[in-house]
Amino acid sequence: MTSVDFDTIVIGAGAHGSAAAWALARRGARVCALDRWAPPHARGSSHGRTRIIREAYFEHPAYVPLVRRAYELWSELERATGRTLFRRTGGLTLGAENGVLVSGALRSAREHGVEHELLDAAGIARRAPALAPPRGTVGVLEHRAGMLFAERCVEALRVAAREHGARLETGERVLRWDASGSAVTVTTDRGTYRALRAILAAGAWLAPLAPDLGVPLVVERQVIHWLTPRRHPERVTARHLPVAIWEYEPGRMFYVIPDVGDGLKAALHHQGPTVDPDAPAVPASEREQADVLALVERFVPDAAGIVSESATCLYTNTPDGHFIVDAYPGAPDVLVASACSGHGFKFAPAIGEALADLALGTEPRVDLTAFRLSRFATRPPPA
Ligand SMILES: Cc1cc2nc3c(=O)[nH]c(=O)nc-3n(C[C@H](O)[C@H](O)[C@H](O)COP(=O)(O)OP(=O)(O)OC[C@H]3O[C@@H](n4cnc5c(N)ncnc54)[C@H](O)[C@@H]3O)c2cc1C
Q: Rounded distance, CA 276 to CA 220, Å?
């Protein structure tokens, strides 16, 4: 029998890698998750205090079963760790009725029976007095949406993984892996490990570890901002304001997350430049702050006081904006996850569970067909 150190080595232990480690460890697998830094950290894609979770999924209905499973697992993680990870605020998807946001959210809601209300501009302003929707704006209001406390979630996943016996190494950078022998050999800047399987979950740094992926991954800079309201601060708190994504021009979106003590969080969704994740992050520019302030001035005027804080973060985008969760080409014992494209955090425990299923050879609970690599070779992206 092959002598190995672990059943599975997870390369990258941010949101998805830690979730995979938790899922594997609680099923009795010997798992080691390696990270070049110490998650939760502020260099990758999982920092910035909050993330939106929503179910009327404008990106594609295929994500709805996945997010439903994620809701269950986030609750389980809250119970297991005794930490509050989620706050329900309701969620609004706003824009023109025929825009990609609203029409996509309605499609998912209708196909999967997601409880929702369709609001006109007056209805939106009644539900969320801080919002100033122009005439003709419609909103899809879903009740179960809210925010996840991002760093707390990553920390909780790691605590839970460790409690089930996972080994979590930090400050250890994976240099390469090799699956050509009887086991997967992982070489780091500290040593060499052998495992039956490996999972690549390196976020913005996946591309150099996955040279045969056959799919370009583009790392995009994103800037997030916190604003001190200029009046009616209570209107932008989680009691009165749902998390909201707004298609303010065709194909252009920004989002706001209510103030939970540090100001209203606001950011553009995409529209950032391509960057090298290894280059030092450039702080937010005055222009980037002014752009977001102008949008808040237009659509959430009460909140348009001053930008009190900004931070940068990274999206890792696939060509069609959908996730990759699959076996690595030519290496069936190596799995690869790129569950970002700017919307992957909410799914982390469900993606982790799916990766564990694939690693352990059990049928994934959620259909992963939409996330296979073969879609890039043989058919157009999901319609
Ligand atoms: C500004 C912003 C806002 C977002 N908003 C939302 C939202 O509201 N809702 C939502 O669902 N999603 C959102 N997302 C997307 C979501 O946060 C990401 O999809 C998710 O965090 C990706 O997790 P990850 O595990 O892939 O990456 P990360 O958590 O960054 O983890 C990757 C890890 O791999 C490690 N690593 C890399 N290379 C190596 C190596 N060679 N050796 C060892 N370790 C390595 C890194 O140190 C890192 O810890 C947002 C993202 C950003 C940037």
A: 9
